[in-house]
C-alpha cells in the first residue's frame, strides 16, 4: 500500500501540474471550451459565459497548485479533498460530453493532446481511483520539507502561475499547438491525398406502406412497392474519412469565397477579430497604422470576422477603418488566433508571423 500510495501521489501530482500548465499556456482556448459547456445546448447556463475566462484561469491555477501541494505533502487533507472534488467535477463533465456527445473535446490538455470524450472520461476514472488510493494511504503521505519551506514553494508557484497567465493573456500562448502556428503552409494542410480513406455512411430510408412505416437500406430500395410513400432519410457515420488539419477556413466577401486568392498572394496581412463587439478598443485603434505600414510594404490586407455586416459597418465608422472585413466562421477564427484583434502575416499561404495587438509593433512586415 505504501508503494502504491507513493506512485499515486507523484503520478496525480505531476499530471495535475502538467494538465494545468498546458491549459494555463492558453487560458483563452480553455475559456472557449467552457463557453460550450455553459451554452444553452449543453448545461443551459449562458449567464456564466461572461465569466468563462475568469473561471478558466482560476481552474487551471488551482489545478497546478493542488499538484504542487500534493507533491510537497502540504496540507494533505485539504489538498486531497480539493483534488477529489475537482476530479469528481471533471469526471461528470467528461461523462456528460461522452454520453450525450455534446462537447467533442473536453480540453483537458488543451490543443497539445486532443482526447476524445470517452478517452477523457477514462483518464478521469483512472485519476479518481488513484485519488481514492491516496485517501486510503494518506498516512504514508509525509511533507517533503518543513511547513515554512512548503508554504514558500507553494506561494512561489502561485505567483509564477499568475504571472504566466497574465503574460499569455496580454500576448499569445508561449507554445502554439494549433493547426495555424507560425510556419504552417495552409494550402498544404488543406489538401486531401488522392488515396485518403473516404467516410463510410449507413443510410436508412423510412417509407410508409399501407399506413405502416418501414425502414429500408440503400440496397433494398429497388424492392419498394409502388404505393410506398417517402417519410425520412437518416444516416450516421460508420467510419470517419480523412480530415485535413485545416478543413474549415473560408474568406467570404459578398457571398464569394476568396480563400484561394488570399492564400496565393505573395504577401498578405490578416487582421483577425472573431467578434468585433467584443474586440478591444485599444486593439482596434492599432489597425489603421498597421494597415498603412503593410500596404506600403506591398501586402494585401483584409480583415476576418464572424460579425454581421451591421456591426462591421459600425466599427469601421467608429474607428475610421479603411479595409474590407471578410466573413469566416467564428470557431475557425478562435482556432486561428486568441487575441481579439490579432495580426497574421502570410507569404504564399505560409504563416510567417502572428502577433497579439499588444505586440503589433513587433509584427514582421517586410
Tally the structural domains: 3
What is the distance, rounded to the nearest whole angstrom, between the alpha carbons of the first and last residues?
Answer: 63 Å
Mean pLDDT: 91
Cross-sheet strand order for the largest sheet: 8-7-6-9-10
Number of E-state strands: 10
Overall structural class, as computed from helix and strand content, comes to: alpha+beta
Helical percentage: 40-55%
Tell me the series of helices and strands, N- to C-terminal.
Answer: HHHHHHHEEEEEHEHHEHEHEE
Identify low-pLDDT runs: none
Principal-axis shape equals: flat
Quote the beta fraction: 15-25%
Oligomer: single chain
C-alpha Rg, in Å?
25 Å
The count of helical stretches stands at 12
Main pleated-sheet profile: 5 strands, mixed
Protein name: DoxX protein
Keywords: Membrane, Transmembrane, Transmembrane helix
Organism: Paenimyroides marinum
Membrane topology: Multi-pass membrane protein
